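// run 5 | inverse folding | seed 20
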């Protein structure tokens, strides 16, 4: 008479294999190629990101950090922030801290500025610092 003790073991292995394959797909939901161009120079890099988690990279040569966040519930909206070593940097149009990007564009070009944070209903015109380039690739 053969034992059926191996059946639960095989079922657990199959379940574990399925969970591991799903988690490896979720481990890299999308990638981002980015570039920054300023008067101080240019630099570029790539990020591999997950939905619902902030993904960021430091651009040492320009003393900047780019942060990307995409919510699984809103995959067509990418939240982008850019920070600099200078506390007055970096803002987007209208002195906004964050820019929403459409990831389906072949290449997004976003100007960024240094100056003063937006307050209330005041219109603030800051000094242009450069351009952030972003290209997204879903996995």
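// decoded
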């Amino acid at each position: 008479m053969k034992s059926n003790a191996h059946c639960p073991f095989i079922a657990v292995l199959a379940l574990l294999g399925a969970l591991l394959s799903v988690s490896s797909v979720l481990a890299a939901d999308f990638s981002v190629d980015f570039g920054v161009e300023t008067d101080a120079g240019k630099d570029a890099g790539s990020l591999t990101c997950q939905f619902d988690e902030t993904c960021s990279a430091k651009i040492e040569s320009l003393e900047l950090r780019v942060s990307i966040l995409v919510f699984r519930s809103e995959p067509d909206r990418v939240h982008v922030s850019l920070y600099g070593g200078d506390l007055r940097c970096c803002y987007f149009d209208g002195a906004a801290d964050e820019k929403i990007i459409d990831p389906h564009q072949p290449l997004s070009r976003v100007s960024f500025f240094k100056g003063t944070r937006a307050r209330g209903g005041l219109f603030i015109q800051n000094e242009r610092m450069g351009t952030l380039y972003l290209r997204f690739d879903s996995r």
